Amino acid sequence: MTTRTKTNRTIWLKESDKKVVQIIDQRFLPHQVVIKDLKNVDEVVVAIRDMQVRGAPLIGVAAGFGMYLASLHLSCGNCSLQMQEAGKHLKDARPTAVNLAHVVDRVLSAVSKLNNPDDIQKTTFQMAQDILNEDVQICKQIGEHGLHLIEDLSKKKNGEAVNVLTHCNAGWLACVEWGTATSPIYHALEQGIKVHVWVDETRPRRQGAHLTAWELGERGVPHTLISDNSSGYLMTRGLVDLVLVGTDRTTVTGDVANKIGTYMVALAAKDNQVPFYVSAPSSSIDWNMTDGFREIPIEKRSENEVKEIQGWCDGTFKKVKVAPERTPALNYAFDVTPRALVTGIITERGIAEARKESLLKLFPEKRGSI
Amino acid sequence: MTTRTKTNRTIWLKESDKKVVQIIDQRFLPHQVVIKDLKNVDEVVVAIRDMQVRGAPLIGVAAGFGMYLASLHLSCGNCSLQMQEAGKHLKDARPTAVNLAHVVDRVLSAVSKLNNPDDIQKTTFQMAQDILNEDVQICKQIGEHGLHLIEDLSKKKNGEAVNVLTHCNAGWLACVEWGTATSPIYHALEQGIKVHVWVDETRPRRQGAHLTAWELGERGVPHTLISDNSSGYLMTRGLVDLVLVGTDRTTVTGDVANKIGTYMVALAAKDNQVPFYVSAPSSSIDWNMTDGFREIPIEKRSENEVKEIQGWCDGTFKKVKVAPERTPALNYAFDVTPRALVTGIITERGIAEARKESLLKLFPEKRGSI
To answer: Which amino acids of B are annotated catalytic?
Structure first.
């Protein structure tokens, strides 16, 4: 993939000094592209905590690099203990991020029997690269499977642009290179298939407007920003051919937790016979959960995200108040789209229907764990 | 009705000088309550054009007062011609506002045979008052009919607060005193019935956050602001008992054009068996239209409403950019909710089902006009 900026990834090792990790500091998007050096695990912790990097897959990859940076600065004494402390530090940066904890535990398990700092460094270096490459590979595979959906629609439309609608940001900015929901779009683009993307603004944090619009623009994908209220109307007018969204957690039965508002998009898609697909790497599938509505905990976030909006004004960020001072706001961050509204789930191994047997057919090794 | 501010209306004649009209200049809400004097028809034109007053009913009432102010400043010569020019001036302030044109034509017709400035003044004064009082009366009647819905829900919940969800602003700020969608809520409040209102922010212009939240707060109605994406999720959690919205135009067959996003709220209401009611004064019903989806024209507004947000910062308004510069946006202002999703239509004569025969039963005199 090529982008208009110099980087086509969200995180990488600095070309001139492999002991430094570089990231796009996403807090400044879409108004400024700030590349930031991270030189030690503490700086990775801050980057995760302050949302310089965000998106579950990217946070996991950043944690891998955090463990590598920690290994570069081991002092004399108990290396294993120092690595454990670094891991705890990273986990505490975002306690609800399940895959961050998985990455940390995976690295800790690999270095647990090593005592030599050099060995630990070599191992963590390799693991950080592996974790990054796995993400790239999984997103690529999701894109290859999802590409067929867009190809088919393109044929049906005799090559006219396929209109894809997406909600929030499940793009390369949330991962390393391809994204999940966006990967089929980027793959279609590489195949020369005409695509146009409707980008839901995604209130309250506006990840669609800030991040998805920016990353699509960087890669030259035709796109149009809309208010979240608009997606249903566009569907009634036949202006949406396909909905593609990501997921924070999907049950083995096909219930999909994703950014608040996804459920209403899915309702509109159903009402207008627009196919609704969820890009879900298998790491986001909860193989033990069968009732998303009852079992998936939904995070409430600060009311200030609803009552204040940060934007760009005279070359700097300004936060403006957009509601009466005394009005309270409620801010659930996610919702659950029931399986009945989901046309299919695009995984790295292929596309499944939103039901247990279909998902388990792609991941038979998970049968034992249920 | 009493409010926390000194006024409980959006427009009135100045107490100390009946030749001056006063309005709440709504551009400053919710951050400042600015009362503005309008001394001649030109100032009314500006008030309408610049959205100092907004909402179809209020614009109509303002036009009535505009004609009255015009009559105060007639110069020698052809009074009728001068009144016609004032009327044209008012109509041009908002060419798509059907009821503004109706009000102007109604006043012009009444003064067409008068030549004496005094007679014209008396007539326009009386008509402006009549038009204002009609709005108050119609909104009051809508409230009395809609009140029963809230009463019934309150009984079912053993007096626990009835949770009403509303979209955009169809409140007293859009009318004179009661509003349309809000009128049943204010009536319930006066009856001592516990009510809580979920206020949809209503992107892109954010009328829910700016206006509905403010006006409910002014009248002491418990309410909570939410992002538009949240309403569906709240319904899945049983947190919404009733949806009440206004309408810009409703067909005789029950299709409802209203602020963009209303359709998605209606879909979520249907999916969760939440009753979905539309407050529609008969003036907003189009007795000749049978297919809202095909026949109601939907206005596209500036993309800047999506890409920029105005808010309050350090005691003044600031406009901040909230999307990439190069990203285009599409901004349809309304959508159409099909009759199948509408539980009922609350008119000044009672509640009808969303179908022709039921509406005509309440307004039999309209049979002839179809």
So the answer is: 248
